[in-house]
Structures are given as C-alpha cells and as structure tokens.
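[Discussion] Sanity-checking designs against the backbone

I'm trying to build intuition for which residues belong where. Below is a structure token string of 185 positions. I'd appreciate it if someone posts a full sequence so I can compare it with mine line by line.
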C-alpha cells in the first residue's frame, strides 16, 4: 500500500475506526492491537503488539493475552465488506460451540482474521510463536477448530466479498467504490 492501511479513509472514517465501531456494535467493547503512537488518538484502547514482526498470529496472541473474556472476536482492520449481521452470526455460533476457535472457510482455506477464539487458545498460540510459527492456521494446530463453510457465510454476502481485504491501491479504490454503492442502497 505504501502507507498504513489502517488509517486509509473509507466511508468517512479511517478503516481501523470503521472496523472498530462495527465490532463494538456487536461486542460492546473493542481493543486495537497495533502501534499506540499512530493509533492511540482514535478513541479506542490500543495495545502494543507483544510480538512485533510476527504478523497476525502475534496480534491474535496479544489480544487473547490481554482479554478477560472467554470468547473473543478477532477481526483484521482491512476487511471493508464486513457486516453487523455476519459478526452477530459468528458470535452466536461460537457461544454455542464446544470448539476452541470458530473460523470461516473459503476456497483457499481458513479466514482466521475474522474469527472467534477462546481465551484458552492463547498459550497454544504463544507456544507456536516461540517455536517460530508465523502462519495463523499453523499456530492453531492442536486446537479444536470449528469451520464455517462458504455456503453458510455467503448467506450474509452473496457477492462473496465478506473476507476480501485491502492489500493494494487497486483494492482500496475498489472498496471505496463498492462501499459507497452499498451505502447508497
């Protein structure tokens, strides 16, 4: 992207703020894992990543370590097509589950950055990080993971964009256009 995508504006707000507000409507509380120096003035609690440079798995471990909740909704800030209805669904699904984590699946595999994790996953994930594991799905090895099939989550997004993230300027321009059109409906 060439710049911090969390701070890119989408639909009148920084992407991280837009995502945080959405998650807050479902969970009631919200904590951001990231750089307090750049994200600290946004009005949310910001935790410095315990595992800088370890990627999303480190962020998940940091969030779980700091949490007092048994179930935790972990969401990347660069998923502009998430909906409240979907988040409510995954939270309800997790609360009824005996699994350690509830992860949506797509044709390429798991979507671990819009998923629910039990607090008890944290020691397993930290141990994986200490062994040098960086891939999120590898860090969940040994945990009971309940998958959510595409046929289930696509009921919340018939366009198949729910987990499409923004990794390039082209993705950002596309998101601005599509989110704008959805807001007009």
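Best answer:
Here's mine. Compare freely.
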């Amino acid at each position: 992207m060439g710049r911090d995508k969390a701070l890119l504006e989408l639909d009148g707000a920084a992407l991280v703020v837009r995502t945080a507000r959405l998650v807050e409507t479902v969970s009631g509380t919200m904590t951001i894992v990231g750089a307090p120096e750049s994200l600290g003035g946004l009005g949310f609690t910001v935790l410095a990543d315990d595992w800088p440079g370890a990627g999303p798995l480190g962020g998940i471990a940091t969030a779980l370590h700091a949490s007092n909740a048994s179930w935790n909704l972990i969401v990347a800030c660069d998923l502009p097509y998430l909906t409240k209805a979907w988040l409510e669904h995954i939270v309800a699904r997790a609360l009824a589950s005996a699994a350690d984590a509830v992860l949506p699946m797509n044709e390429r595999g798991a979507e671990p950055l819009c998923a629910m994790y039990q607090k008890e996953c944290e020691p397993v994930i930290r141990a994986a990080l200490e062994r040098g594991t960086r891939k999120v799905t590898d860090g969940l090895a040994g945990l009971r993971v309940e998958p959510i099939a595409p046929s289930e989550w696509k009921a919340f997004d018939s366009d198949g964009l729910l987990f499409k993230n923004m990794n390039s300027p082209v993705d950002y321009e596309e998101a601005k256009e599509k989110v704008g059109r959805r807001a007009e409906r």
